[in-house]
Amino acid sequence: MSRILVVDDEVQILRALHRALAARGYAVVTAPDGEDAIAEVEAAMPDLVVLDLNLPGIDGMEVCRRLRTWTQVPILILSVREDEAGKVRALDLGADDYLTKPFGVEELLARVRSLLRRSRPRESTPPRFEVERVVVDLASHRVSRDGSDVHLTKTEWRLLDAMVEHPGKLLTHRWLLERVWGAGYQEDVEVLRVFVSQLRKKVEPDASRPSLIVTDPGVGYRWAPDPQGDGEVGS
Description:
The chain has helices spanning about 10-25, 35-45, 60-65, 85-95, 105-120, 155-165, 175-180, 190-205; strands spanning about 5, 25-30, 50, 75-80, 95-100, 105, 130, 135, 140-145, 150, 170, 215, 220-225, 230-235. The protein is of the alpha/beta class. It folds into two domains: about 5-120, 3-Layer(aba) Sandwich (Rossmann fold); about 130-225, Winged helix-like DNA-binding domain superfamily/Winged helix DNA-binding domain (Arc Repressor Mutant, subunit A, Orthogonal Bundle), CATH 1.10.10.10. The chain has a five-stranded parallel β-sheet, with helices on both faces. Strands 7-8-9-10 form a four-stranded antiparallel β-sheet, with no helix packed on it. The chain is globular and about 50 Å long.
């Protein structure tokens, strides 16, 4: 049974998330502020932390920074829609994903499942991914769509490889630029957009309506995100 720590200073949200997660078989612990959150991670050693950014005392940003000094527990950020810069900063500090309030319960559960899957130990053999008739084989560096080989440039392959290794995870512009182009390109978002557009034309079933490389406006991209659901929390 996976153990999940939920951190939020709003009692109603804590109760709603506790009910939703417990009903799906997760063991749930809660914390109302940043200090309690850090103490609970040390004591309970959860498999996942659902962390609100706006907390009294030590805010979620500082909690994320401190946790990343000693643990790689997956962190799912909760944030208000207007605080886009805060979400990006939290992701750069080491958070793994975020949800904007209000959010759907099924979307939360999909993000939880995705983060828990990714936190499991990887097999030593590079994996093979298949989604929507697109096959990416990391071992052989081959990509095919509908059974036909797709020819990528070296940069396009590095970009696809970086995304495919983290399915469903939000990857910030800065992270992708550093991973694919290097430290001198962190702010060159236009370069990234051009290559994402090229990659979509080669791998997407319909490049005008991308479903594999999905944009999170102003933040980054996700590869093959999990389906989202209905029913909102945090409104």
